[in-house]
Amino acid sequence: MASPFDPADLPIGVSMTLSPLVSRVLAPNPSPFTYTGTQTYVVGGEAVAVIDPGPDDADHLAAIARAIGGRPVIAILCTHTHRDHSPAARPLSTATGAPVIGCAPLTLEDDGPRADAAFDADYRSDRVLGDGETVEGPGWTLEAVATPGHTSNHLCFALREEQALFTGDHVMGWSTSVISPPDGDMTAYMRSMQRLVERDDAIYYPAHGDPVDNPQRLVRGMMGHRKQREGQILRFLARHGDSAIPDMVAEMYKGVDPRLYGAAGRSVLAHLIDLNGRGLAAPAEDGLWRAA
């Protein structure tokens, strides 16, 4: 979790070529949780796919249309259904005639602190991709890689021809992902991270932050960070006995932007639920937690 919020000066609404098959358009929704904003990717050559169309914003939809440049759109793919990723899928489908493909619909009441993490209740998929299923176009193949954790319906998409992985919010280029129960699941997240370590992707294109050109090293580092946080929680519980999550956050997240404390508390809760499942922590009375 990065701090303070200081987004780079990247051009909003401008198509930037990243590789022979990949270009990027930045949406106008920067925030402490989205960094510079959601990055929509246009993949392909003579015909394209659009990944994570982003918020339903007229200027952003116009920017995506410019990036498409009149080429046929074979598919619109969403990594997951948080509101900064999927709402533009349906209007873009209407404009291009392309089907919405990818993650399953998921609507869940989220009592977490991030408004941008609320689920897109209007999302509908014309085809849900299972793990390992593909979408193909001229000269490109996108394969679904199931990566639950940030959300239970999260998918990454592997571009086979370039050994590239579009990682959505599972791995971001500027910060660790928020894991917010009840749908966010730390146990599933760590399994998904281990799966990525075992892959041979050469580059990640996250929905937020810069491309990652040494991805396995980054993922191992993120997993190590989570293990360190887990250790901090267990040591805190051992010292203080029955403890409240805000007290843990105040000690463990010193120097972090206070606007992120609510999200930090959700990640601490996700760790505690994981630790409880492993017999290392347990809920106590009045919302407190203790070492098991």
TrEMBL record:
Pfam families: Lactamase_B, WHD_BLACT. InterPro entries: LACTB2_WH, Metallo-B-lactamas, RibonucZ/Hydroxyglut_hydro, Sec-metab_biosynth-thioest, WH-like_DNA-bd_sf. Signal peptide: none annotated. It comes from the Bacteria. Residues 37-208 form the Metallo-beta-lactamase domain. PANTHER family: ENDORIBONUCLEASE LACTB2 (PTHR23131:SF0). This is Beta-lactamase. It comes from Sphingobium lactosutens DS20.
